[in-house]
Amino acid sequence: MAPGIRAKLDRIGRGEPLRLLDLFSGCGGLTLGFVSAGCVSVGGVEIDAHAAESHALNFHPLKDRSAAPWHAMSKDILQLKPSSLNHLLKRPPNEGVDVIVGGPPCPAFTRVGRAKLREVFQHPEAFKQDPRATLYVQYLQYVQALKPLALVMENVPDILNWGGHNLGDEICESLKAMDYRCAYTLLNAASYDVPQMRERFFLVAVHKETRSDPSFPVPTRKVDFPRGYSSSRNVALKNVLAQSSDKGSWYVAPPAAPANAPPAVTVAEALADLPELTDHLHNRDRRGARHLNGRVPHTTAPHSAFARLMREWPGFESDGFLRDHVTRCLTKRDYRLFEAMEPGEDYPKAHVRATQFFAQELEKRRRSGARLTEGSLEYEELKAAFVPPYNPGKFPNKWRKMAADEPARTLMAHLGKDTYSHIHYDSGQQRVISVREAARLQSFPDGFRFAGTMNPAFRQIGNSVPPLLAWHIADELLRSLGITPKARPKLSEDPRKTQAKTRVA
Fold first, then answer.
1. Fewer beta carbons within 10 Å, N or C terminal of the chain?
2. What local confidence, expressed as pLDDT, does residue 95 receive?
3. Where are the transmembrane segments (predicted)?
């Protein structure tokens, strides 16, 4: 057995917590889930300055002044070598990290075959040989240098069918050569207590010397997903399923939810206890950065198990005030439409409503004697005050009003530019979601802080792995390694108990 692996197994055998490194960490969704399960963070590697600062703010605050400035700095993984972590690990690199997690941004692997990928990975200056493979290669180089006991990788489902190319199997093939047992699947966050339908690729690998096998958590929720999610999953898995039938694959089907599992956590369960926001209706012309330094008090008690968890998450409890319950100031045109839209309506339907409102106002003004001819400046200005300029045929998903009794649709990094994809279900508030509401939908607790202003915070949230899903994955991984994790929140009955009851019966 390799000395580094033996030292790690001995250390965790003495009850010491697993030491976690998060690559492409963002603000720390994966880190939060794993720390909550019982791991301890040694740091994150993240190039975005605001996200790196958020990660440090939440997991490596300034009380450790010798290391905290390093944690808060943006770090380019192309320049930062594993040996650079020696001063943090305070031990040889191959003994200092037990678990690596992260989601490298997905490059274009359309024509990179397995032989080519191995060649790229083994080259000492891989990024000069094939920039498409750069970030994937850096992740593997960290695994090779640090020799963790286990790792988790997250990405978009299209990684399995990138131009007909399955990168998941190639990652596993490279990891197998480094003595890891691998498996990957697609998991949806809504199946694990997150109030958001978010489908992602997850790969789990464990070193063969741990004598364990990779596995995935049993869902705690039974969710009826819209047709679009099923279609996207089928497209992503097209080549995977074809491969597994003839030459094998590391793909495993996602675990099924127990038949009696409760339905998904809804948007209303996640947000209804948060204070109403209407100031935007009186400050419509406000422009400029929105800061996250407010003190909006909670005015109602938690109304659901999920809301209670968001306020009482261990280590990230709310102090009773929301600092980031801020939203965008838009236009009267948009507020009018937000109020009129029905839950679940999208941009094409909003555009129809806007056209109707414009026609009504146009007729009203013409009856009053106004001469508004089509094509005139006055006509076009009036139309712009009622009708958004986007082509409804090209932007069908640009706007969507959330339904209170369903989980939200996927939050994207594009939230940093606009939040029309998540219009609040309460028509009286006539607005898009706030930063804190986006964080709730992603399952970040109220005590979690985001660095920067509103737009960077939205981007960090949209880029994150939901911490509650990460907690479930960490819980399963620790159990597979023979470690008792910290208790997961009981938002529904533990599916393991349900399965045990079924087997006894």
1. C
2. 79
3. none
